[in-house]
Give the backbone structure.
Amino acid sequence: MHAHHINDATQPVTFEDCIRFHGHSCPGLAYGYRAATAAMAALGVNRPEDEDLVAICETDACGVDAIQIIAGTTAGKGNLVIHDYGKNAFTFYNRKDGKAVRVTFHRNEVTDAGDFASLRALVFSGKATDVEKAQFHELKDKTTADILHAPADKLLRIEKITMEAPKKALIFTSVICECCGESVADAKTRKVDGKHVCMPCAEGTHIAKKK
Ligand SMILES: [Zn+2]
Ligand SMILES: [Zn+2]
């Protein structure tokens, strides 16, 4: 696999970095990589140190991990928004100048994903033979390489769009939930019977089951 550097010599972020973060190489990761690098070039930004760039992902799948590594738009910084519409579409907004692009893909011009989808379903069902598993991995690697190396105009559609600035991550004050006693961001509490409680207490949705 070739190293794919973005245009910033001081911070070379490669597809290999994406694989290390994501755990495996796959077509979804390659789509995310291409979307992020193309969008950043279109917006004229390098990997930002701060939160000027915001990514809005219309999927919650593999590509999102490449977006986080390449564009520096991460869940923890609050500049990664996921609307899981199940669409391979990524919008990037630059707070510095208000410019935005939405990236989608001409999928079938690069690779016929038909075999891939059916083989993948078979492998994930646990019913694939060793031969089918090997075919799947070979096709997966080929598809990933095709996506990484496809000419931009054959693979991507980059639309300049106008949009409202996404809401900024809020700075919260912590308070103590009057039900479970755990610390919780003030703005995220609910009032139940006159008490300020956390959402899991209000909704009965604690992750850990009470013993
Ligand atoms: Zn993946
Ligand atoms: Zn609570």
